[in-house]
Design goal:
Layout: E1 4-5, H1 15-24, H2 43-60, E2 66-71, H3 74-86, E3 92-97, H4 100-111, E4 115-121, E5 145-147, E6 150-151, E7 156-157, E8 169-172, E9 189-193, E10 204-209, H5 226-231, H6 241-256, H7 259-279, E11 284-285, E12 297-302, H8 308-317, E13 320-321, E14 332-335, H9 342-359
Parallel strand pairs: 1-13, 3-4, 3-5, 5-8, 8-9
Antiparallel strand pairs: 2-10, 6-7, 9-10, 11-12, 12-14
The structure holds 4'-deoxy-4'-aminopyridoxal-5'-phosphate.
4'-deoxy-4'-aminopyridoxal-5'-phosphate is lined by residues 9, 74-76, 101, 148, 152, 172, 174-175, 193.
Length: 360
């Protein structure tokens, strides 16, 4: 039996993709080997990685003047790699702070010797809001403006693309990439750990406008230096081959299921159903401002925290797994990425109503 897995990441993957991977696991493309056992420099794997990149470009609409990089170290490595690649020490960088992942990115930029200006900080709302367009001023001298389109822990998602003028926009799309169409041309750099909507962990995708390459600090580790990685098709060293293979399968699944427009429709319907169930109940509560509610990560609370453990345990027993909130905030959180079917969300809503009847 497959669980409805509400983990924030590594997260649920499409069953069809897992079944294809299983069918190919011991004999990939008639090679008599799995994709994990072949050289990354062999013809077959080079073609597999090229296909994954081509599909990503097609599905996401990546313009030709952007490089797509397959890197390691997760999104966390990029918190340092972005300053190392795009700035020199002492330069100004602007940030919008909407929660824990923005805060981590800010800390890394300070560590890398940058003059960090947090031009909007949602602390006053306890990070349940996003800054309104026009409520902050981007410094034209900044090397870039960084923001987090979706805060995975807080369940806070931007309902607009921040305007940054001529200043390149840098975005941590880890928990919302592929959930809906985006205009890549509006960004200088997009990065995302794969383990939510793009496959297994071990892979971080970076999409970067070409004119931003080639200015890295001399001490940048070679495996994180964008120009060198781009020149070697992300194969300066051994890449995470299985993760790249699975990314290709997932992108083919997204494409065959109608692409990002269809994903957005499904995701909006799932999120609407869950938020409506929460809002209609006196027992459950979501603290996020309605315009900033994430389609991907839905945190919710009950009035009595003593009911959280039984909720999570009883839900798991009913096949609804990983519903505990992040360890730093408690409560519950349902992550409903692309692979979560509407049936899983409906099963959660039914369970929530039943739990409320028994405990409300
Ligand atoms: N940014 C966001 C928005 C995230 O959700 C996460 C992981 N949950 C990270 C960064 C860190 O990613 P990684 O664990 O791949 O370093």
């Amino acid at each position: 039996m497959r669980a409805y897995n509400f983990s924030a990441g590594p997260a649920m993957l499409p069953l069809a993709v897992l079944e294809q991977a299983r069918s190919e696991l011991t004999d990939w493309g008639g090679s008599g080997m799995s994709v994990m056992e072949v050289s990354h420099r062999g013809k077959a794997f080079v073609a597999c990685a090229a296909q994954a990149e081509a599909l990503l470009r097609e599905v996401l609409g990546v313009p030709d003047d952007y490089k797509v990089l397959f890197l390691q170290g997760g999104a966390s490595a990029q918190f340092d790699a972005i300053p190392l690649n795009l700035t020199q020490p002492g330069e100004i960088v602007d940030f919008l702070n909407t929660g824990q992942w923005s805060t981590k990115a800010i800390a890394a930029s300070k560590r890398q010797g940058l003059q960090v200006e947090v031009i909007a900080d949602e602390k006053a709302s306890n990070y349940t809001t996003v800054p309104a367009p026009g409520s902050y001023q981007v410094n034209p001298a900044a090397a870039y403006l960084h923001y987090t389109p979706n805060e995975t822990i807080g369940g806070v998602e931007f309902d607009h693309i921040p305007a940054s003028g001529e200043v390149p926009l840098v975005a941590d799309f880890s928990s919302t990439i592929l959930s809906r169409p985006i205009d890549v041309s509006g960004y200088g750099l997009i990065y995302a750990g794969a383990q939510k909507n793009m496959g297994p962990s071990g892979l971080c995708v970076v999409i970067v406008r070409e004119d931003l390459l080639g200015h890295a600090r001399s001490a940048t580790p070679a495996v994180l230096e964008y120009a060198g990685m781009a020149a070697s098709d992300s194969m300066l060293n051994t890449p995470p081959t299985f993760s790249i293979y699975l990314l290709g399968l997932i992108l083919a699944w997204v494409k065959s299921n109608g692409g990002l427009t269809a994903m957005a429709e499904r995701n909006r319907a799932k999120a609407d159903a869950l938020y409506t169930a929460i809002d209609d109940s006196p027992f459950y509560r979501n603290p996020v401002a309605p315009n900033a509610r994430s389609w991907m990560n839905v945190p919710f609370l009950v009035a009595d925290p003593a009911l959280e453990k039984p909720f999570v345990a009883e839900a798991a027993a009913a096949g609804l797994t990983n519903l505990a909130g992040h360890r730093s905030v408690g409560g519950m959180r349902a992550s409903i990425y692309n692979a979560m079917p509407i049936e899983g969300v409906n099963a959660l809503i039914d369970f929530m109503a039943d739990f409320e009847r028994r405990n409300g």
